[in-house]
Structures are given as C-alpha cells and as structure tokens.
Amino acid sequence: MQDYDALNEILVTSGAGIHASKCHGFLCALVCGNGQVQEQQIRDYFLLDTDEIVNPDECFIQLKALAEVIETQMYSSDLELALLLANEDDPLAERSRSLAKWCQGFMSVLGMSGVNQGGIPSVSKELTGDFYKIARLGADNEDESDRENNFALMELTEYVRMGTLFIFEELQDNIDSADKPEKQPPEVLH
Asked: Residue 136 has what DSSP assignment?
C-alpha cells in the first residue's frame, strides 16, 4: 500500500491540490462505479496534462500504482481493502479529517463514474448517505487521549471500509456482464 505521508508530499509538491485520503476515496469510487480506473480519468481529474502540475509523470506513476492496488484489493475475496488515511500515531483530529476527506473524495466522484442515484441499490444508497454525513464531520474534539473518540473513529473507519466493499459488490452485480471490465478476475468456484 502507498504510504500516506509520501503520497501527500507528492501531491503537494506537484501542485495537484488534493489530499492523499481524498485521492484514495476518489480512486475507490471510480473502481466501485466502473470496475476499474482508466488512465485518462487519472490524468483528467488531477489535471496531469496541464502546465499547472509540476512533475506530472511522477505523480501519474504514483496514482496509477495506487489505482492498481485498489483494484486488486477490491476484487480480492479476502476483504483486504485498506483506506489510505493518516497514520495511527497522528493526532486524532488529523485522523478524523483524513477520514472525512476520504469520504469527500468518494462522494464527489461516485456520480462521475457513471452511477446515478436511481442506479444505486437501496443498501448502497444508505451507505453513501452515511459517507456524505461522515464527509461533513468536523474534528471538534481535539483531546487525543480520549479513548472513546479513538474507538469511535476506528469503528467509523471500519464501517467506511466495509461499506465501500459492499457498494463495490452491489454495483458490480448490477453491471451487465458485457459491460464488465476485462481486468475483472474470473469467478472462483468453491
């Protein structure tokens, strides 16, 4: 998995103007909606074909590698998706903001990936509503020693992680088999 701080540094120095967590949420939403991330989507969203980005090739390589990891994790039967969030030793407020930014990225792109509200199954619609609420959360309590807040954040993070996998599964089940991407691994018979 990509290192959170390293990706943040690349995105900041490149001038992409996006946080690593929001970027990860964005890419996860593309995989949920399309089954994969297309290279042009990365270039378009992060403006890598403009003069505004410094070192666009390095930025693209890192983002493409992250998208490939996400695709592998989403298609895995081991439920191994890992959200790219602030590190556990970072302050609680920073970790809370990174989860909110992750949800912002996810919600801002789900519609771009071709999914409309009418095409989202009811359980996934509820989950996306919850993600929207989490995206709007502020980090009001700065008390980093508060175990209850740490535990609540861990629960929210797990809820978002499992919710993302559920949304992916539901949306992929709704895609006509002729429209599914070639990258999808073959079904495993048990």
From this structure: T
